[in-house]
Design brief:
By secondary structure, the chain is of the alpha+beta class. It is built from 8 helices and 16 strands. The strands form 4 sheets. It has a 5-stranded mixed β-sheet with strand order 3-2-1-4-8, covered by helices on one side. Strands 11-10-9-12 form a 4-stranded mixed β-sheet, covered by helices on one side. The protein starts with a strand and ends with a strand.
Length: 367
């Protein structure tokens, strides 16, 4: 089957479900009833609307100007809390999409257990409807004239701000004795004509909204493939860039050690800066001078490979103050232990997060 399919849920629980299909392109209309264990075969392109009995639905028209769907739903639920006789947590509230000429919207209140029962019965026949509409909402009407239709033992009444399903005796009290529009014929055909215009209110909202499977087209799949490839390439580039940065940092540290050795040993040929600086410190007895302190720092930084020296300063009382640059999350505990192994005391200062990693201050002094 394809086209617009209407399923009528009867007010009598044991009665059979009726269906009506209209294929506009082919000009074919079909109808029938479903046996208790019969599954209705539906084409994937079918638009299915379940018409539910209004005796289980309370319909009200309230002042609810145009708003976003979320705002309208929240406002309708607050209003329904005052209109409902039962606890609002047990009620399902739906709101019409459109506003009438007086700025009013229809809201529908139905017990959640009733919605569950309807959907379970439809599911037993292989039906998951796109829309669920109370029956009298699908009757045509005029602003100044009510419409009346017979649906089995019940009467459906529709007006500008009225939609009910009632016993015939009650309907006679509600409907004026003259001026009413009486509708004859198959109601499913009447419903189909109304649904070709729009859906006046859909109960499948909120928790009962129909879920739709995402089926991407080929173009979407192609875009997803290129995106996955880009992510893969980026994941491979990040370690390479990090390794390059650490290599450059080590080279920078070694250049600084070499420059420091040239300043400390101006008359010597520098072959092994670290060893020559340590030997010079031993000769002059510089147990805590800047030269030996810096040599220990640079040697530890070079061996660690995660830091680079960004700046340093020396004071006779405070010792050597060093600012270390590193990647985010790198801790200095290993570097501190390496410096302390040379016989110095290391005090860790503040760590600051920067755009390209972090900066950590340390002080190194003789014990």
């Amino acid at each position: 089957m394809s086209g617009h399919v209407i399923i009528a849920l009867p007010a009598v629980p044991d009665a059979a479900l009726r269906w009506y299909r209209l294929d506009i392109d082919a000009g074919i209309a079909e109808s029938g009833s479903l046996a208790p264990d019969e599954v209705l075969e539906l084409d994937p392109g079918s638009r299915v609307c379940a018409v539910v009995p209004a005796d289980r639905v309370a319909l009200h028209w309230v002042d609810l100007p145009k708003a976003s769907p979320a705002q309208a739903a929240a406002a309708a639920r607050m209003i329904a809390a005052d209109l409902s006789a039962g606890p609002i947590d047990l009620q399902h509230v739906s709101v019409a999409r459109d506003v009438d000429g007086l700025g009013r919207r229809a809201i529908a209140i139905v017990e959640r257990s009733v919605m569950d029962g309807w959907l379970e019965r439809l599911s037993a026949h292989g039906i998951d409807p796109d829309d669920m509409v109370p029956a009298p909402m699908l009757l045509p009407y005029d602003e100044d004239r009510m419409s009346v239709a017979r649906d089995g033992p019940h009467v459906l009444v529709r007006g500008a701000a009225l939609a009910i399903q009632s016993e015939p005796e009650l309907a006679e009290r509600v409907v004026p004795s003259s001026g009413a529009r009486f509708i004859d014929g198959d109601l499913l055909n009447v419903y189909s004509t109304r649904l070709e215009i729009d859906t006046p209110i859909n109960l499948r909202q909120g928790d009962f909204q129909k879920s739709h499977k995402f089926i991407p087209d080929r173009k979407a799949l192609r875009r997803l493939g290129w995106l996955a490839l880009g992510v893969l390439l980026l994941s491979l580039l990040i370690p390479a860039v990090s390794a390059l940065r650490y290599t450059l940092a080590v080279s920078s540290n070694e250049a600084k050690i070499l420059e420091l050795a040239r300043q400390a040993l101006p008359d010597s040929t520098i072959a092994d800066p670290q060893a020559q600086l340590r030997a010079q410190a031993a000769r002059v007895g510089a147990g805590g001078g800047m030269t030996t302190l810096a040599a220990a720092v640079f040697e530890a930084v070079r061996a660690d490979g995660q830091f680079r020296v960004e700046s340093m300063g020396y004071d006779a009382s405070d010792g050597l103050r060093v600012t270390l640059a590193s990647g985010s999350g790198v801790v200095v505990s290993g570097l501190r232990s390496a410096i302390e192994a040379y016989g110095y005391t290391v005090t860790e200062g503040a760590t600051r997060v920067t755009d390209d990693g972090q900066r950590t201050d340390i002080e190194v002094r003789a014990r």
